[in-house]
Structure formats: structure tokens, C-alpha cells
Amino acid sequence: KKTLASLPAGFRILDAGAGELRNRPLCHHLVYVSQDFCQYDGGGDGKGLQMGNWDTSRIDLECDIAAIPEPAGSFDAILCSEVLEHLPDPTRALDEFARLLKPGGKLILTAPFSSLVHFAPYHYCPGFSRYWYEYHLPQRGFKIRELIPNGDWFAFCQQELMRLGSMARHYGDWSWPLAYGLGILGAFYFKLRGGRRADDLACFGWHCVAIKVKEIG
Q: Measured between alpha carbons, how far apart are the two ends of the chain, in Å?
């Protein structure tokens, strides 16, 4: 929200992999264009975590994220939030973003470092570390301005422990009441624990803002 609000009014922004347009309300001051491949229906293949219902009927550009029918340099900013894990080859999307952004344009990325399988079968590659951004973005003419961890290893453990009971029950574990008990004990631990963050080990994901500083190719 803070990053989008900082963009100048009138900037043309591409929301790549926009899904149900949850970020559109944050872009009222911008010229907003949404893109999605529009093939996920909410049920997927029935495995992992599914949304149940998923409406992409309001998408502006229905296409492959790596082949967006817009001219080179046609956007001032590109937002791609929690999408890269759903791409078989996410670096192809970075190539397309580099083509579409104007020089000086801003690229706003978030993607999970740690996540459960969701939107299957369209879930390919979680595990986006800070080193992924630091390796791939400069190769495509981007300079990273911000790279901020969302949570850390302890926060991730807390999240998973809190849903241990419900997941055990969902998958038919007869001892699911014990799992809820562990969750309660864990809640006390995480409330009382001290010590430094462990985002060098794991986190939910990294929030990245990069600027296109040069053309590649």
C-alpha cells in the first residue's frame, strides 16, 4: 500500500497476474491495467489449497505473462505480487517486465519464500530468496532499491503451528485434538520468546522494489 501510494498520479501501471484485482483499490490515482492468464477457476486439480471461487472476468489483458500485447516502454510501473510461484519459468516474466517498463520505471515484486501448495496445478516454484532477486534483476537492467523480508523463520513456524490442528483434522488425523493443544502451547512460546530475527534463514517472502536503469540486449 505504501509503495503504490508513493507513485506519482497518472503513472501507467501494469498489475501482472492481477487475479481478482485485489490491488486495484490502491491504484485509484494511477492509470491501472490488469493482466492475467485467466485459466484458474478456483478448483484447480483439487489438490493443496484452493480458493473455491475465482473471478477474473474484469481482467483487461488476458494473455501469457511472458507475452503481453503492449509496446515496449509503455508502463511507468509494474506490480507483480504473489504470482511468480505460479509460473513454470518466472525469469521469462522478468524479461517481459524489462521490455515493458520505461527507463526509470519501477518494478514492484513480492513472491513467497515459504508457502504451501496453492492454486494447483498452477504452482511451480516457491523458494524465492533474496539471492534470486539479487542475481536475476541486475542481469535485466534493474537496480534494487528495496529488498525487505516479510516475517522470519520464527513467524513461519508460528503460522504453521497455529494451523496444525485444522490441517490434522482436514486430513483425517485421529489425534487432531492433540494438535490443537500443541498450537495453544506454541502460542505461549511465541508470545514470550525473545531474541533476534531469523530472516536470514527463512521468511514468508521478500518485498522488492527495483528501478529499470538501462536497456539490455
A: 33
Residue type present at position 210: A
pTM over the 0.85 mark: yes
Q: Which residues neighbour 113 within 8 Å (Cβ) at sequence distance 6 or greater? A: 126, 127, 128, 129, 202, 203, 204, 205, 206
CB within 8 Å of 61: residues ≥ 6 apart: 33, 34, 35, 36, 68, 69, 70
**What pLDDT was estimated at residue 217?**
62
CA distance 16 to 63: 10
Give me 128's grid cell: 524465492
Residue 56, amino acid: T
pLDDT, tens digit (0-9, with 9 covering 90-100), for 13-64: 999 999 999 999 999 999 999 999 999 999 999 999 999 999 999 999 999 9
